[in-house]
Amino acid sequence: MLTAKPVELPGSFSWDVAVNYSRNRNKVIALAEGLTTYILNERRGLTSEARVGQPYGTLFGIGFEHAPDGQIIYKDGLPVVSGTPRVLGNIQPDWVGGIQNSFSYKGFSLSALIDARMGGNIYDEGSANARWTGQ
């Protein structure tokens, strides 16, 4: 976290600013004896796991087959589905940060905070239920 006071006028006005930034790079090294994976959550074939050798919160599930150039493979107009679960993403954000500005003028103060959580993957249960029920 970095803080600064860019402006301070004695007895009348001041401006304080604070900025923070963090990121977490991790890997599951070991679990309880006999476990290589621990399922944190499971929904319709998608699991969020703590799996040895992977970052905490890795999402595993069935995805589409891809050509060597990264394009999805289609057959008869539909994407070809992979037969084995694979890494689809991770729930952890790439980084978290924020900035806070505080202004004071003759005994009155105003503060504003903006927070950001950037990156990470989510599973939209609401849209999945709507598609499942034909809505």
Describe the structure using short key phrases.
135 residues, mainly beta, four-stranded antiparallel β-sheet, 1 helix, 10 strands, 6% helix
Structural topology:
Layout: E1 2-9, E2 13-22, E3 37-43, E4 46-51, E5 58-61, E6 74-75, E7 78-79, E8 86-90, E9 95-105, E10 108-118, H1 125-132
Antiparallel strand pairs: 1-2, 2-9, 3-4, 4-5, 5-8, 6-7, 9-10
Identify the strand order in the major beta sheet. Answer: 1-2-9-10
Total count of domains: 1
Annotation, overall tally of beta strands: 10
Largest sheet: 4 strands, antiparallel
Shape by Cα distribution: elongated
> Helix share of residues?
under 10%
Q: What Rg do the Cα atoms give?
A: 23 Å
Low-confidence spans: pLDDT under 50, at least 5 residues? none
Q: Helix and strand string, N-terminal first?
A: EEEEEEEEEEH
Assembly type of the chains comes to: single chain
Helix segment count? 1
Walk me through this protein's architecture.
It contains one helix and ten strands. The chain is mainly beta and about 140 residues long. It has one domain (about 1-125). Strands 1-2-9-10 form a four-stranded antiparallel β-sheet, with no helix packed on it. It is elongated, with a radius of gyration of 23 Å.
Provide a short characterization of the protein structure.
The protein is mostly beta strands. The chain has one helix spanning 125-132; strands at 2-9, 13-22, 37-43, 46-51, 58-61, 74-75, 78-79, 86-90, 95-105, 108-118. The strands form 3 sheets. Strands 1-2-9-10 form a 4-stranded antiparallel sheet, with no helix packed on it.
